[in-house]
Amino acid sequence: MSRRLVLLSFAVLFAAASSRAETRVLLDFESDDTLRFFDFKQKSSAIVPDHATHGEHSMRITNGEYMVSWRPPVTGSWAGFDVLRFDYYNDTRSPVKLYILVGDQAWRDKDNGTYWNRHNGGDILLPGAGTITIPIRGLYRGEAGSRNNDIKRNIDVDSIVRLDLGFSGQPGSIYIDHLRLESASLPAFLKAFDFGPASQPLEPGFTCITWDTLSSAGAPFGFHPRRRPWHANRARDDTFPTPLLQDFVETNECTFQVSIPDGSYHVWMVYDDCGYWGGEQARHVRREVVAEGSTVYSETRPLGWAHSLYDFQDVEALPGTDFWQTYMTKLFRPVEFDVQVAGGVLDIEFKADNHWSSKVAALIIYPAENRTEGDRFISGLWAAQRSAFLAKAIDTTPAAPEMPPGLKSSPVVLFSVGKDEAVSPNTVPAADRILKSVDLSAARGENEPVIFGIRANTALSDVSVELSFARAGARQSIGLTPIPASAIKPQVAWYLGRRSFNNIAYNYVAHTLRPASGFSVPAGLARQVWVDIAVPENTLPDRYSGSLVVKYTAGDRENTLTVPVALTILPFRLDDTPFNMGFYGITPPGLLDGPTQSTLQDAIFSTLRSYRMNTFSGGPDMVLRGFRNGEPDIDFSAMDAFMKQARENGFDRPYVNYGGGGISGLYSRHGYVIGDEGKKLAQDTGLDYEEVCRRAFEAYRKHAEANNYLPLILGLVDETRVKEVAREQLVLQRALNSAAPWLKTGGSYSVSFSHPNPGELERLLQEMFVTLRVNFMNNHDAAVVAKANEVGNELWIYNQGQSRYSFGFYQWAEYAKGIKGRMQWHLFVQHGWQYFDLDGREPDTGVIAYHSKLGILPTVNLARIREGVEDMLYCQTLSNLLKRRPNHPAAGEARRVLDRIEKDIAVHQNSCPGWLDQDDYRKRISDLIVEMSK
What we know:
Radius of gyration: 30 Å
Helix content: 10-25%
Shape: globular
Largest sheet: 7 strands, mixed
Structural class: alpha+beta
Distance between the termini: 66 Å
Number of helices: 17
Strand content: 25-35%
Number of strands: 47
């Protein structure tokens, strides 16, 4: 986008939409003297006469610079303004990531300024000229997904003490000019309301409407005091996509009132249909708006709840996709109507047949006599939303390199792809990667894929992939099973536009794996194909020959490409491992009805087992309904059925109750503290709280033993960041340890024992580490491993990545150091639409997706993960052989191979080291297993 277009988009909003605008220039970078207001970590700043937007000079910095200001006029009071802005010119020819830090006096005063009490934001600088806009009424503390946990309010804009701007990306220069504060007001004839939490970033000139903005006591606007949102939870800000649209108030069964002179009016409003947490997308079959007693808008969706799960399931993001038109116009639904007001108050009622379905983001009212000017305002406002979205939602996928000359003439090129290798639409194969043949090996019972890419120079349609094997020729008469067609599953990867945290810049990633039949490959793009071969346990060890066949139509001609495939079945099976591994999340979306959920739950268990997972997190809660005659009344019915399904699908390891599967009603699940729930139980029963817990968990223990439940690891920590909360959590942990000494208590967080002078929060986390029986560590080091061994509790890891390496050789190295298990975020997480990743509270990082017709779709990441687990199982199998046959002639080499992995992969080294060729190491281990089995 050109600088002119970016500036025009803001001009549309500020000029066409505003009757007054005010600007305070903080720095114009006209002289060297202005550089003293920032400290530059890289010392790269200079005043230059290039790319100035205000005056005749700008500031040039080198990309990679980090700027810090503690000084007025940059700091001080920003009160009375809507946004902080600066103009830029990015000559790196690539998008530049911008990191933003804002601190206020309250942040500085609390514990000398912590990460979680300052604002940590981000943005993107497009190549060329543009403007960065930072709404200052909406600067949350901490991170977007975990805001205001300690100091409960946003940054105080009247006491700014620090501003940081950090830049990263490709080498080059960045020019900055006209650092300023701006505010705006709207035309006097209209009323404009921005709905959301009190802390929302406001659209310039709009009035904030939050859940407790009431029309009582003569207020000119607000919710009717008896028809209002019932809780602050109904006002949300999910940071996507613009200040006007990214926040909302759930208004179902509520009435919004505006005091207004009698007459004819036009109303424009917009629904936000995204999710914030999983399952919070709009769920309605029908919703409507009633104004002054008459229905002025209604809509129906036949799929109801399932619409929000399956919408976009057959829409694929590809280069050239108009994200605004394809997705945004469906997720943000403008509604317009005319209304006649009598009595001096306009009543607007919002109705839907399900909750989270009347999420109003904005509402504008203006007289019918101003319809022309009002419509012009709306048009400019909507154009500004589109421009602001597209200025941030940019494609960062690396450009395609030049096609090797010898490959340009072919309509299609097949090329080899590594198991941990990413394929994007712009992938162009090197000449030495052209697929001429495939040579594989696999243990009996192993899954082994044929992975390749298809690069189209001409548009391909009706593409299909087939793979088949013949019997082992010399031994056909024995009648042993060959590799049947049912064991072969050709799949093609569909693309998704995937973002990272805190921004909506995206790149195209290979996402869901779907049947490789009848798909297309647009001209100039590449696709990844993943053909799974599930080798049966009773397959005869031998060398099998096969054919990979790719059929396609180019123009009017049908064509076929055939690639020979050789598969060697090795004479052994892989051993299981004691290491526990699984994903957070196990239950189907709550958007589905009960029978569908039960069927899907079984399919989820089956899918996890087929991808070699042996544990999981979550499940239905066991509900503590109260106490009767001093004994707990717990509803176990949902858990009984769930545990039966888990056992039937082969699960026998401990599970983690993060996301469900514990006893609800015993303590505050939100904060993992005793809380009001626990205190009320003690008061109602007349028992000491510890005795309440003892009786509840004793009832659970007896029922669990009688009904063959899996062992439970009770999660009591989720990345605690506030010391006051940590103290309360320790009280609960100690109470439960004392009440049920047999119970495995645990939690997910990071801690260090390496700091010579830890702060109070770190000391409390160290106490947790000793108190809990199972500690799940994200960041961890050798000191943490040593401490776990010293105190005798279990150490697990979590969120270490979704690569083959992370679940393979890295996981084996961690296991060899004493770590007992691992959980990963996330099996299926749905903050917004599962097939559109720019919306919602966080990026969706699930490894499965749900499709209304195809069922559970695995992702490329899940397929890679299984390859990693099988790497680990090769290590386990060789290790077991070493224990059984320590004096075998090949034992020395086997020890050297395993020692290299165990010792040269450091604790928490979850990125693959350069010396490790994963395919080569698997081959070496495989050969050693064969040798040591003789």
